[in-house]
Design goal:
Blueprint lengths: L8 E6 L2 H12 L15 E3 L6 E6 L19 E5 L2 H11 L2 E2 L8 E5 L5 E6 L5
Parallel strand pairs: 1-3, 4-7
Antiparallel strand pairs: 2-3, 5-6, 6-7
């Protein structure tokens, strides 16, 4: 069944859009695009990808989500498929991520990006 449209961008609010774009660029290997945005105010930046991509939007008075609590729910998160959870964990921690205290599964691990958004490293058996 065809959809109404096609997925293009997942936008993530943050206090410093350039810094968070650099973090996810290092995580995914996608380059950071121009910092201009449609409104021209420079508060929006995207990773460059042939398919759907991530965008980062600077928001005044940003407050990080609380996870796993629901006082400020995560609202969305990114899953990144990896070959080896231990190797990938070391790499994302070196980039500035924090491992979440609560880990609900064994084939994936939950981390917080530098501004508190949860994201998961997921063991991808299909990549092997």
């Amino acid at each position: 069944m065809p959809g109404i449209g096609r997925l293009a961008v997942l936008a993530i609010d943050c206090p410093d859009h350039r810094a968070l774009a650099a973090f996810y660029s290092a995580l995914t290997g996608l380059p950071v695009g121009d910092d201009d945005g449609d409104d021209g105010d420079g508060d929006w930046i995207e990773l460059v990808n042939d398919g759907p991509t991530l965008a980062f939007q600077r928001v005044d008075d940003y407050v990080a989500p609380t996870w796993p609590g629901s006082a400020l729910p995560q609202q969305a998160h990114v899953d990144v498929h990896v070959l080896d959870l231990d190797v990938a964990e070391g790499a994302v921690l070196a980039l500035g991520a924090m491992k979440a205290d609560y880990q609900p599964g064994t084939t994936f691990r939950v981390y917080l990006d530098p501004v508190g958004h949860p994201f998961c490293l997921v063991l991808d058996h299909a990549m092997r």
